[in-house]
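Dear colleague,

Following up on yesterday's call, I've attached the two folding results inline so they're easy to grep. Please treat them as preliminary; we haven't cross-checked anything against experimental data yet. The first protein's sequence and structure tokens come first.
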Amino acid sequence: QVQLVESGGGLVQTGGSLRLSCAASGRPFRIGGMGWYRQRPGNQREWVASITSGGATNYLDAVQDRFTISKDDAKSTVYLQMNSLKPEDTAVYFCAVDFIRLGRPPDRHWGQGTQVTVSS
């Protein structure tokens, strides 16, 4: 069984920074794409950023130039560096990792979620 463990959330003031981590562990696996989603109060879960196995990145317009997604393949870990945080970034952040399965669609797993609260 594969497990994703998130860490790094917390309370920060407007303009502050946080770094989220999501580490995969468990049975042998091969990772495809990795990403971060968030669910703000009263809203549906939305995509925030993603990184391909080759390292190409994409961002939600609202976080472009403030957030940076990166990964450490040796540690099977994806990160989200969040700078210049705004109150509207307050949300529960979830990591998503696609595990490659030969001949079948990728198997997506989700982290448990970590709360990020930005005070004004």
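Below is the second protein, in the same order (sequence, then structure):
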Amino acid sequence: QVQLVESGGDLVQAGGTLRLSCAASGSIDSINVMGWYRQAPGKQRDLVAHATNGGSTGYADSVKGRFTISRDNAKNTVYLQMNSLKPEDTAVYYCYAVLRRVGGLGFGNYWGQGTQVTVSS
């Protein structure tokens, strides 16, 4: 069994900051990529940022320069530091990981339950 548990979502004013955390636990052999998607009401789920176990990162254009993703590989945890938040950042943020379970043959995608981020104007 593998679980991804997010925390850190909250209500914040425009211009404020939040830090999301996501910890993966369970029978994990190796994690390749960890990252964040978000989904606003009535919209599709979009990639926000990702980080590989090699240290490479990537960001959606809409968050570049404001959000920073980081990983603690020893703790199987990924963070998303969100600065200069805007109302359009309001969404449910989902953590994901591309990982291989102990005894597994290959890598699969796993998701957290989501955490709500609301930015008021």
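For the second protein, one point worth flagging: The radius of gyration is 14 Å.

Best wishes,
A.L.
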